[in-house]
Design goal:
The protein is an alpha+beta fold. It has a domain of 275 residues. 45% of the residues lie in helices and 13% in strands. Strands 1, 2, 3, 4, 5, 9, 10 and 11 form an eight-stranded antiparallel beta sheet that branches. Strands 13-12-16-17-18-15-14 form a seven-stranded antiparallel beta sheet. A three-stranded antiparallel beta sheet has the order 6-8-7. α11 crosses α19 and α15 runs antiparallel to α24. The N terminus and C terminus are likely disordered. Bound molecules: aspartic acid (ASP). The site of aspartic acid has 9 residues, from β17. Keywords: Aminopeptidase, Hydrolase, Protease, Serine protease, Signal. It holds the Pfam family Peptidase_S46. Its EC number is 3.4.14.-. It is an enzyme of class 3 (hydrolase). Belongs to the peptidase S46 family.
Amino acid sequence: MKKTLLLLCLVAAPAFAGEGKWTPQQVLELSPAWLKAQGLKLPPNKLWDPKRGTGLLAGTVNTGGCSGSFISATGLIITNHHCAFGIIQEHSSPQRDLITGGFLAKAGAEELPGKGSRVQVPRAFTDVTAKINAAVPPGADDLARYKAVDRKQKELVAECEKRPATRCQVATFDGGVNYTLVDAVELQDVRLVYAPPRAVGEYGGEEDNWSWPRHTGDFAIIRAYTAPDGSSAAYSEKNVPYKAEFFFPLSTQGVKPGDFVMVLGYPGMTYRTLLADEMAERQARYYPRIRDVLGEAISLLEAAGEKDPAGKIAVASQLKSLHNVYKNAGGQLAGMRRGQLVEKQRAAEDAVVGWAQKGGAKWSDALKARDALLTEQQASAKTFERDFLLGVSGRLAQGPALATRVARLSMERAKPDLERRPEYMDRELPRIKDSLERAQKNLFPAADKALLHAFVKRAQALRPDERIQAVDTHFGKSYVEKDVTAKIDALYANTKVLTQAERMKMAGETPAQLTARKDPLLAFGMDLAKDQAALDEVRDRRQGAASRLRPAWRAAVMAQAGKPIAPDANSTLRVSFGKVQGYTPRDGAVYLPQTTLTGMLQKHTGEEPFNAPPKLRATAEAKKFGPWVDPRLKDVPVDFLSDADTTGGNSGSPTVNGKGELVGVNFDRVWENVANDFGYNPDVARNVNVDVRYLLWNLDQVEDADALLRELNVRKGSPVVKEAR
Ligand code: ASP
């Protein structure tokens, strides 16, 4: 963060208390008096000490797409059930169905290793903006600019990763306002310790997803291991639990309405710094297309699953993720309309323009930059439909997606490491191989063929100036149903891409070797990879333009605001501050901020997704609350709301009180708040957390997990917690 910004931060507090996903550095720049007034009981440097890379934030880990946190000095990590689903699924079989039954390791030796599961523990954040900008040669055009920035980022990462077990990344904030080198320790041996049955972890399923009131026990406990000397190591029987210097003790007191909370974690992506026109396109085209294309895919997968029980299991995870994105897109659209977010952004933008115009020459570059960004936007809009379809294809038919991935890997590996696309560099190979291997569990050719058919039909309907070449080459330019069906049948009948061992071999072959295989699905994938590579190059140039233009425009926005603004989420570590509170979802209705075990029972129908497991139900019906009853609610609290500013990726984030004790785990947002990715609205900005007391009640009263409770420093009957470190 630049000096000028820093000064701004010290003199002013954020616009709304809950607004902002603050970077660790920004937390230290926010007014300590303001933080204290919010409810922070620790000195801000207990959250993060940048010199030593220590503090509570060092206990907040990235689990790859989700967040998690250490809850013991012995490497125990809490995250969401839906974030640990991969490990649970990996160890589930019809004979031992951990998805349905849940899992509890009674001793360390029983813990289940997760293939490819890793967690990253943050160590340092270094501002490298000046280094990145200096790497751009004078007079570079936008593509050259992109390439120079990309190369410098890779060099910084390579240098940073010279230390063992280190995972680094140069994160771009707001299109290039700031570049930060993120340095983390990667722990490679992660094992499942506890997962509740799916009927608890996903109670309410899709029906309750993205909404409130909620009664979901979306938690799971995993543990990180290291070599006996403490260094990060791949799975080995000799490994020992990771010694976490920083962790969040569990608060057995929980929360009540009005309490201060912080949500720490790795929010994925938000779009609040987009121009109004850029936002408008997401509302007018992007989310409607998600609804359309993914909605169709969901129907096709469900229909195929109906006819084949094994197929139904295979597509379960793809279907779950499609549903999540599909419903999210509905929430984005509803929230954008209801909150008039584009209109608000336009008004805010107009205000900055008016202000900058009055500022004369000082801001003329900012205004020009905004105009140029708009021109870029209009240019990219011309091929929106093709680009969208190509972009989303990886989520649709898995056969072509795997073929494309293998082909792209082979094309990229022909280049020197630093010239490849970042996701195909050598450092990514173990991850790529894991995912190519794991994909086998999710394959169901009958469903896949239907998805490919729908994709081809859509591609063939594209305008002549936005064609997908691979589709034209392999399927012809116009749609004839029986021809497409016959062609797809032939692709699937004669391919080895869907055979795990062959696919793994392909992952190590050159493009010439892949071509020589004369595998028709692979040939289609290779051509699709070329379409994607061409689109990537166009996008690279656009990103080069954005990195030139957006910082100039954002400088005007920030100067006009006169108060600290947190950057858009970009999967880096952030902190949000909030209060436990309910909200008014619509005229005449008020939602309370907490739900209870009794409320969970009331929802029980005996059928999915409201089918509480018998033991849990019996314990709840007998009102065996143990010490986990909330004195106000006279019941065990299940979930609670706060107005902390979160998004996707914050799943599994520790929700902690002012002393740094864990009071819950974030897992979702309410329906009215899905569109907060485009703007924070304090009236409806609510994130959904599972109350730590629901976890403790489950461990204590339902699972009899005494050893685990002891390890968590919670004594049955009389809860005791240690001081936060
Ligand atoms: N459910 C989301 C996730 O999985 C969290 C959110 O979007 O609020 O990351």
